[in-house]
Amino acid sequence: MEEKKLDINSIIGFVLIFGILIYMFYQNRPTPEELEAQKAQQEQVEAEQKAPENQVEENTVAVTPAVSLQDSTAVANYKSTIGAFGFTQPSEGTTKLENDLVYLEISNKGGQIVEAKMKTFKAYDSIPIYLVKDGNAQFGLNFSTSDNRVLNTKDLYFEPTLSKSGDNQVLSMKAKVAADKYLEYRYEMKPDDYLVDFTIRSQGLNGVFNTSQPVQMEWKLKGIRHNKSITYENRYTRLTYSHEDGKISKLSEGSDDDETEVDVKWLSYRQHFFSSILATKEEFEKADLTSVNLVEEESRSAGFTKEYTSVVPLQFAGGELSKNMHWYYGPTDVAVLAKYEELGLEDSIPFGWGIFGWINRYVFTPFYTFLSGIFPYGVAIIIMTIVVRLAMSPATYKSYLSQAKMKVLKPEIAEIAEKYKDNAMKKQQETMKLNSKAGVNPMSGCIPAFIQMPIFYALFMFFPTSFALRQKSFLWADDLSSFDTIYQFPEGFSIPFYGDHISLFPILASVAIFFYMMMTTGQNMPQQPGMPNMKFIMYLMPFFMLVFFNNYASGLSLYYFISNLITIGIMLVIKNFILDNDKIHAQIQENKKKPKKENKFQRKMREMMEQAEEQKKSGKR
Fold this sequence. Notes:
Blueprint: H1 2-27, H2 39-50, E1 67-68, H3 72-82, E2 91-92, E3 94-98, E4 102-107, E5 113-122, E6 128-132, E7 137-144, E8 150-152, E9 159-165, E10 168-178, E11 181-189, E12 195-203, E13 215-224, H4 230-235, E14 237-243, E15 247-250, E16 257-271, E17 274-293, E18 304-314, E19 322-331, H5 334-337, H6 354-372, H7 377-408, H8 410-419, H9 424-438, H10 447-465, E20 487-488, E21 501-502, H11 504-521, H12 534-548, H13 554-578, H14 581-593, H15 600-620
Antiparallel strand pairs: 1-2, 3-4, 4-5, 5-6, 7-8, 7-13, 9-10, 10-11, 11-12, 12-19, 13-18, 14-15, 14-16, 16-17, 17-18, 17-19, 20-21
Helix pairs in contact: 1-10, 1-12, 6-7, 6-10, 7-10, 7-13, 7-14, 8-9, 9-14, 11-12, 11-13
């Protein structure tokens, strides 16, 4: 009888942890796609890389190409439509801003960024990482004029002037109504920096704007796919924002969502490992935010994950506009974003919520960063796993000590069960008394499971989102932030829930957890009426791990494989070399001789059970 009870107490904690995780896995299960070459795009990139770099000199304009609109009728129609802003001669072309990290192109039409490319990172198929390209993003100001026109800056032509301020490149884009009256977008790029200062201001337009209506700043972007599995990438693609003095909120990751917020400090259009961020030190008074999910299922041809839109009103001051902001196009990397502490951009990283996020951010991330600076990335995971398991070994010891005590009490509990076999309530009451006198807590076996849950969830978020692991290989895994593949099924073949490939690390982790459960639950697991079948659960849990972890970060499977091996080793050492059943039995007998003082909870439970027993006897009379 006691073996059954011990097994149930141990399993309850285990099921509580994995029940939560399994539900989460099922809700977000990804189905990865196989590698697909993008030949045409690669040829375009290679041609671009062969082109000579644009040389920028002080007070010179770098526009490529600069082709004036030749159709006089089209020019006349344009000027007629935009009214006063027709002072600027329409001219197609783009201006380049670049440093060693990021490449930007700003278009004359709209004065907006039409291309943003990472210069030091590539996607899974060796194509450079583009955050803005081929019209996937739009930025503009909607406003009305004093002559009752409604205009959007994305339709206006701006006049570019590129200069230098020290080592910084400064691009002024002006949509003019006169030589000294204009709306200006000012970009300033620093060397070796992803952050670009961005200012919107007007000069001499207090009689041109209709100031009775605020200017609506609108920013749209469709997230470009960068990973081999678009569903996997989409799980970590999300609109995140800071508002109301430091609150961090997110729109839905799996469905369409919208929200209106006030006092917004920054808006992050996160695309898994890369982010496009618009930030300001002086908060936006309000922002209307929308996220549209573009991924319904795994697809080899789909090119976009989510479509984001933000609409932010800008207020006039003395009939003019003035707003200082910053563009960030770069990696979602704690080592990079932490540099912008004043803006708080580090908070845009998906560390997780509550205590789980705290553990991830302040324990695992810096600890792994330290280890990976010394050891290879996979070895660093193994070392981190060893440290975590050793830190949790006292809880493991306490769990096994409790199990040993329960084993010693097994004959006495069996006597109670036989004596009160026809009275379940009395049997439970006497069993509780015995455990209390002996100093045994049957629920202590659940402690390691409850400790493991926040650790495991923090790691569940750490491995798929840690930029330090992106495209880092170990053994057969070519990317520790994604799944490993030892066999790819033929094209068109996929196993439901499992995927179109076989990953080895989840198999190893499943085998390890199976042996762990064999050791903790034992071979003899008879079925108790009304309770789950323990033997079925013992086989079910490794199966769930095998299926769902097949599509998750290989670093997580590696951690769990090593973690269970270490746990098994610690358990064997405790069982064979530390615990002494004779000493435990002697201690229990001493504890039983000592008067045991009940706490309030124990007393309340005893009184309730005694009252229930009396009511049962009264009913029989």
